[in-house]
Amino acid sequence: MNRKNLIWGLLVALAIAAFLSPFASPSPDGLERVAEDKGFLHLAEGKELIHALMPDYVFPGIASEGLATSLAGLVGTLLVFGAMYLVSLVFVRPKGNAGKGRS
Question: Which ranges of the chain does DSSP label H, i.e. alpha helix?
Fold first, then answer.
């Protein structure tokens, strides 16, 4: 994939994250729903194992919930893109070097 396509893909992903994330379902995810239905959700409240940077997919410190959700989507998209870009730099070999082995 060339750099131009990569940048266009990132821009499309950022636009989707920014404009569609406020319309995500407010319903709990599957595990949380099961915990609610079975009556043990209260056992986990206040006992987080890992401090979440953006709990419940909302960027903290912003009064507008729609804007906070959009920012969380943008930050999450950039973090995932950056992580996958770094992984690709480490594990994906350019096609020009495909025939050359490690020595």
Answer: 3-20, 30-38, 65-91
